[in-house]
């Protein structure tokens, strides 16, 4: 992920910091904690947790959800990132590159994950996980492909999840308390409190919820071109038909979602760009191709624009390649007639394509120009990786099904939840908001508080 750009991660060794051992005592406090739930039978694999998403591709450059963490719960706005698996919030500790949470920094309360726990080994390479003492704190470090990073300690605390069956569950979930962050992009640091990693690693929130028996091992998002959308854990919102599925590639070390190989199509016709492996990354604002694929797209689009009253807008700094028209463009509806659709055809899955109409790879800037939202990944250090970012995922429900090892998508109205009543216009339908408290401060009467062992 990246608060403005790309988001694939790799997990690297981080030497334990003794200074923070003193700052974060390791004993767990029983004071002010909710009572443990009696059972999970009413929730097990039968429902999904749904969150409203806020943000846009341009000009903001990221999408966020609000997690209510702790007891009593406090809100934290986190960037959603399917390109990483570790969730972290800015720690209330001496720090570098501190983010700006809406409410306040997260303050640990004798709730550190210990180094000897199995969960701790999941955030380290097998050869790098050594504990001087079993009671040591569990340090983590996550590095992003855009050279951003976060390091800190793992903690475990209550997080509120509002389920589609009408209840609220508060399991204890492990996440990072980050005290040293580095950022890239034009804005540093961002206004968010951290990152929610949606990847399939064992330390992810998704895997932890599944391990507790609360949901199926499925996560998805639906990002609206009008801004906002929704995020879900579990498979309840997934339609029973109409989804296009392709196989999820498996790697031993990476914890993001990739598929392929795929061939690039331009206006429905094959190109010479083949064998692309694609990473679906909600932490990336734009789509990135390797240099060969990128240059092929630029050539195809540029050649097709000849004689269409568009000229290069070299004075627009918004993105590397922009065009201006005879007058200022106000929306993509003004320009998409000039551009042809792209598509990816998956060669190992018959008749499966990911369609990218012009609005899935173009933006209109504040200068009234149209810009190409596909960038050269090799130029920014992604080497041969190809990333499908938010701009190409708009107005699609995208599902990462880790149980069936497949990635799916379908055109969708991301301004409202699927299967909801259609008699109300505007934001999400009121029945969901009223019954689940998704957008308000009130909660349903039914709560379960779950202590994670």
Radius of gyration, whole Å = 22 Å
Helical/strand content category: mainly beta
Low-pLDDT runs: 1-7, 9-43, 420-447
SS elements, strand count: 28
The total tally of domains equals 2
Overall geometry comes to globular
**Count of separate DSSP helical elements:** 5
First-to-last CA distance: 30 Å
How is the CATH topology of the largest domain named? Cathepsin D, subunit A, domain 1
CATH superfamily of the largest domain: Acid Proteases
From the 3D coordinates, which CATH architecture of the largest domain would you assign? Answer: Beta Barrel
Largest sheet: 16 strands, mixed
> What is the top-level CATH class of the largest domain?
Mainly Beta
Report the helical percentage: under 10%
How much of the sequence lies in strands comes to: 25-35%
Round the mean pLDDT to the nearest integer and report it: 82
Task: Describe the 3D structure.
The protein is mainly beta and 453 residues long. The protein has two domains: 9-238 and 415-450, Beta Barrel (Cathepsin D, subunit A, domain 1), CATH 2.40.70; 244-411, Acid Proteases (Cathepsin D, subunit A, domain 1, Beta Barrel). The protein contains five helices and 28 strands. It has helices at 18-23, 118-121, 205-211, 291-305, 430-436; strands spanning 9-11, 49-56, 62-69, 74-81, 88-90, 139-144, 149-158, 161-162, 168-182, 194-197, 218-223, 229-233, 244-247, 257-266, 269-270, 276-280, 287-289, 311-312, 322-324, 342-346, 353-356, 362-364, 370-372, 374-376, 386-388, 396-401, 406-411, 447-450. The strands form four sheets. It has a 16-stranded mixed sheet that branches. Strands 14, 15, 16, 20, 21 and 25 form a six-stranded mixed sheet that branches. It has a four-stranded antiparallel sheet with strand order 18-19-23-22, with no helix packed on it. Strand 6 and strand 7 form a beta hairpin. The longest helix has 15 residues, at 291-305.
